[in-house]
Amino acid sequence: MIRINCPYCGEREHSEFTYGEDATRTTPDNDAPMEEWNTFVYERDNPAGEHIEYWHHAFGCRAWLKVQRNTLTHDISWVGLPHENPEAES
């Protein structure tokens, strides 16, 4: 079972959260070509190992969080708010 340590609510089961998306991607500009939007919406990497994702605490405080999770083991090494980054925490 994955447990996520919400900065506001403390450690909770992952069933209280919903996966948002890859937190490392950049949204195209509004006037970007259709091909760029198509790539953003439909083409995704499937990384193995450490990865940063957005998660929503849907059944708790409803905050959006950034979570650094190992996609192979599901171990969570860092949780922060959307404006934070794990490198800055050192």
- Structure annotation, total helices: 1
For the residues shown, what is the average pLDDT?
A: 94
Rg over alpha carbons = 14 Å
Q: Write down the CATH topology.
A: Folate-binding fold
SSE ordering: EEEHEEE
Give a quick account of the main beta sheet: strands, pairing sense, barrel closure.
4 strands, antiparallel
- Ranges with pLDDT <50 over ≥5 residues? none
What is the CATH class name? Answer: Alpha Beta
Q: CATH homologous superfamily, by name?
A: Folate-binding superfamily
Secondary structural class: mainly beta
Number of domains: 1
Give the end-to-end Cα distance, rounded to a whole number of Å.
27 Å
Number of strands: 6
Please bin the fraction of helical residues: 10-25%
- Main β-sheet, spatial strand arrangement: 3-4-5-6
Beta-strand fraction estimate: 35-45%
CATH architecture: 2-Layer Sandwich
What would you say this structure looks like, in words?
- There is one protein chain.
- This protein is mainly beta and about 90 residues long.
- It has one domain: Folate-binding superfamily (Folate-binding fold).
- The chain is built from 1 helix and 6 strands.
- The strands form 2 sheets. The protein has a 4-stranded antiparallel β-sheet, with no helix packed on it. The protein has a two-stranded antiparallel sheet with strand order 1-2.
- The chain is globular.
- The mean pLDDT is about 95.
Strand and helix layout:
Layout: E1 3-6, E2 10-13, E3 18-22, H1 34-42, E4 50-56, E5 64-70, E6 76-80
Antiparallel strand pairs: 1-2, 3-4, 4-5, 5-6
